[in-house]
Amino acid sequence: MSQTSSNYSELVRFLVQPFLDSPESLRLDCEVSPRTSRVLIRLAIEGEDKGRVFGRGGRNIQAIRTVVQALAQAAGQVVHLEVFGGMSGQPAGHDDRREGSRNGGNDNRPPRSQPSRRPRR
Known about the structure:
Elements: H1 3-16, E1 27-33, E2 38-45, H2 49-54, H3 59-74, E3 78-85, H4 93-102
Parallel strand pairs: 2-3
Antiparallel strand pairs: 1-2
């Protein structure tokens, strides 16, 4: 593992661990492509800890992404942080933000339709 990769890993671990009840369940993988200056960070979180890492409306994970992106930008790199939940192996990071903005941050209900308006007379 390169020095850059370990810096990202340590930073993400430092930012995520305070949200976890069981920090030992955190799985972290970081790949740095020196040719393209891209960094891919994969984070796997078990159970209810995932909800705490995301936070209300995704605020916590967005703040973590912002800090990591600032470090990457200072190093002249582009970073992408993916969050996986439990054993399902389903990515939950980048797609949840789009869903959250569409339905008010609550991923348990379908998107609201626009209320119908009566025509003016």
